[in-house]
Please model this.
Amino acid sequence: MLTVRTIAALRARRQELWRSGHTVAFVPTMGALHEGHLALVERGRELADEVWVSIFVNPTQFAAGEDFTRYPRDEERDGRLLAERGVALLFAPDVKEIYPRPGVITLDAPPLTGGLCGAHRGGHFQGVLLVVAKLFNIVQPEVAVFGAKDYQQALLIRRLVDDLCFPVRLEIVPTVREADGLAMSSRNAYLDPQQRLAATVLHRALAAAAAQAQTGERSGAALEAAIAAVVAGEPAVTLQYAAAVDPETLQPQPNIARRVLLAAAVVVGSARLIDNILVEVQ
Ligand code: AMP
Model:
């Protein structure tokens, strides 16, 4: 596996691949890799000749007071895992390479960035849109692979690609979970054993609401209340939001017609965790 830290070095390798007619599947990450990330890599291998992964803890997507400085970083271990999975290139730039000067261009999608996580993380999705646009222009992959765990992010990137005509095919991989249902996340590393146990309430709450939707509950408010009620049963966990929204617009769905996205964020100790389930109702 080739590790590159500069845009120039990456572009040189990209030129070689174009000459040989080989395609690239790109997996952007913030590192501290787990099986969720590696599932994206596996999917990438099915879709292109080479898988390229970036590890970049993007400062612009962290709101003031969030965990940017203490976000887990272990490039050596990450590099080993990626090499084992057949990744051809790791792009691990420093902040100055991606943000050499204060930027003046901003990206936003207010109807989609305003709710759910966007309502609680000021500037987060604007930072995500900016870094993903930069990374797509740097890497110019044929395919880019993202995870359904970050549903709002995946939806925004879909719109970024469609609205700005990025020549990249998007692939979304289902959420990879621990045996007890907890969605894998780099931030699970913040949990002590008791908090780790308590954190399972997030998926249990969403699964309980999903079961209600599947057995006839059509009120979005009732489903949100169902999520909140299960989370309230776990005193170590605080609910940040529970949402039953239209999967395309992310707007509240008073009456569910066909599909509903159930999404929630909780705080456990110093970790903020998110999860979601997409439910098709009859
Ligand atoms: P991150 O490093 O947290 O920014 O995530 C990088 C990519 O991995 C994003 O596309 C995430 O949606 C995806 N991802 C993170 N956790 C999971 C998971 N448990 N299952 C599937 N994809 C995931």
